[in-house]
Amino acid sequence: MNHSQLATIDRRICGDVWTSSHAARLRDGLCHDIGPRPTGSKAFRAAQAVVAAALRKAGATKVRTEPVPVLAWTERGATLALRKPHRKEYDACQHVHTKPGNITGPLVRVPGTDDATLDRLGRRLEGAVVLVSGPGITIGNYRPLTLGARELVARGAAGLIMSNAFAGMGPAQRHLGVTDALAIPAVGVSHDAGRELESLADTGRSEVRLTAAGRSRRATCSNLVAELAPPRSNTEAIILNAHLDSLPITPGALDNLSGVLTLIEIVRALAPHQARFRRSLRLLIPTGEEYGLVGSAQYVRDHQDTLDEIRFDFSLDTLTPETARGVAVMWAPAMRNLIDRSLRAAGRGGDVRDHYCQGSDYLPFMLQGIPAARAADWEGRLPPWCHTPMDDAHNLPAHWIQLNAMTYAQLLLRLLAQDRPLPAARHSEEDIAALVAHEGMGDYMRFLGLMG
């Protein structure tokens, strides 16, 4: 296509997306009528059926589900009560894939889980209910809460409390297991409750009682897959993914209906132009991102025979106006340059960087050597209500979806229609091992079951 043809299609894409009311209607129905969509739940299956119908209506073909074995979760509530030096109850939610329990113990604040800090705390951790502030526990390059929590268990902790990093927000929920549950109960509390508990813990005379009743169970869920295909056979493909699942306490509007609805709007905008494609756009709406990337990991395992065809994976996860202007490209400088040129040619001029991100559904593809990228927020303005009950339709304006859909439909059109092969080839196993080691992510990858 020449510049004039692309400019004409760009105008049509922007007009179709900006005037569409489909995304707002889907957002409201999925949030209000269905609500939270935990992996393996009836609500997830209901939401998946709605999204599958929307994909077919938008023009996608070969729409189908593929089974995924999962560790699912039954939400049954949690409590946290201060027993000493006085009595007080706090709102709490149990973290997913942690053991049920009813424990009472001394409250001990842990500022970090590096060996030096835990050595200083020593036997104080034994039988204690440990309080950790912030969204996670980090050691070295990157050590997420999932790994730090297991170190606390190894040191004898009886329970875990994590406070929300954002002021004014209630308890936030996270997963602490993938194939098995954390061996102790763990709950989340609000930022304000966490600050209060920190002060009490520092006196060395506080005691709390923690109860948690949620349980993990083995189940089967499914990924939703589809495609937009070129008129002539071409084995090259791009994966576009956005996870549908949410944590049990949240409707998951921003995380991640924003990505799913953007994906559907991209399909709606690009479907009329498939005759110009030179490669396929494979659509993946996985389950289990919130429970450890289990859906995208299963997709990679199930499609080993076609991975050489996948030249690029692009992930839409937790989208805001800022993500419509930023792209993080991982382990693929040549793709970074092509994306930058393509966005500039579309008049977008986004901020495209070589930058490794901690993980979403692109990660299993990267570990197979496939170049990957995600829509990125370089301003650090991620709304604080993710993983809380406030992540609802009211807090996801429709124009956030439209801004991202316009930008990435224009980008994908150029990547799908260019005659030259995409520049990024798969990395070798040796390259992947070196890149993982450089990022300090080996232990986390093994925890997720993505590396041996």
In short, what is this structure?
The chain has 452 residues and is α/β, with parallel strands linked by helices. The protein has helices at residues 3-18, 22-34, 42-58, 115-121, 145-154, 191-202, 253-270, 294-302, 333-345, 363-366, 398-417, 429-439, 442-448, and strands at 61-74, 78-84, 88-90, 93-94, 101-109, 129-133, 159-163, 186-189, 207-212, 215-228, 237-241, 280-285, 310-315, 326-330, 351-354, 372-375. Helix 2 runs antiparallel to helix 7 (253-270) and helix 7 (253-270) crosses helix 11 (398-417).
Give the overall shape: elongated
* Class based on secondary structure composition and strand pairing: alpha/beta
Query: CATH superfamily of the largest domain, called what?
Result: Zn peptidases
Strand fraction band?
Answer: 15-25%
Number of spatially distinct domains: 2
Please provide the count of β strands: 16
Strand line-up across the major sheet: 1-10-12-11-13-16-14-15
CATH topology (level 3) name of the largest domain: Aminopeptidase
Overall CATH architecture of the largest domain: 3-Layer(aba) Sandwich
User: CA-to-CA gap between the ends?
Assistant: 45 Å
- Provide the succession of SSEs: HHHEEEEEHEHEEHEEEHEHEEHEHEHHH
Uncertain parts: 135-142
Work out the radius of gyration: 23 Å
Task: Outline the biggest β-sheet.
Answer: 8 strands, mixed
Helix content: 25-40%
In DSSP terms (H or I, runs of 4 or more residues), the helix count works out at 13
Determine the mean pLDDT: 93
